[in-house]
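We now fix the convention by which a protein and its fold are recorded. Think of the row as the fold of the chain written in a discrete alphabet. Here is one such record, which you should read through line by line.
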Amino acid sequence: MSGRELLKKTTEGVLRGTINTLLYTLFLHGASFGKSKTSYGAYQMFREADEALRDVNYDTFKHALTSLRKKGWVAQKRKRTLTDIAVTAAGRKRLAQLLPIYQKDRSWDGLLYLVSYDIAEVHRRRRDLLRGYLRRIGCGLLQESLWLTPYNPRDLIDDFIREHEVQGRILVSKLGKDGAIGDEDIHTLVADVYHLSSLNDRYEEFLSGAKKGRKRPFQLAIMYYAILDDDPQLPFSLLPKNWLGDYAHAVFESIVMKTTNGLIEKYKL
């Protein structure tokens, strides 16, 4: 897969479409690309600004920009030109809903939780929904119908059972700090279940791209968010000693975030 194809794939995965991609591009570049009296002129500037928009044709761009205005996610200060297009507070809230957030506080009770279930084939749809839900709340698949998480999932699972009227047995059990499954201690177990080595390689690739300065802010931001979206953000004491996630976040903030002319803290972007 080429770098361009990878960028397109991760952009679609994190931002989910042209409208959101355009919104984030505006946000990242301080919402100003210079002066243009026509929407086509603005389109050319956006294409030049970042590789992620080079495959977007003019009609798609114009439709996306119109949609952003109608939704109230951007505001245009001058009616006759496209000089000043600002991302509104509503637009920032939209981005906050899309983009994963780095968790600086990861309180942990020192236990691992195993989630198992026995749901009949006749309720297969609900079983599949449960699997997807377990992934979304940060559980890792240990083996068929057995999931692992360091964060107590009882309340979230109870809510899911009530909402979807799940019929079947769902069990949550505890595994202490000194516990093990087979020959694996909890650190090795967690690293295997959550594929931490692979994630660390991706963080290393991000850091390499940032260090060499070959990638633009948008490319670096999407690359980072795609990794963070897959990162279970485990308790710090469970992470390997060579873990690069925290360093990558610091580099992301120092290199990428500073280009946005001061992002608003309350939106945690």
User: Anything to note?
Assistant: Residues 1-7, 31-35, 259-269 have pLDDT under 50 and may be disordered. The beta strands are 74-76, 85-87, 112-118, 140-143, 146-149, 169-175, 180-181, 184-185.
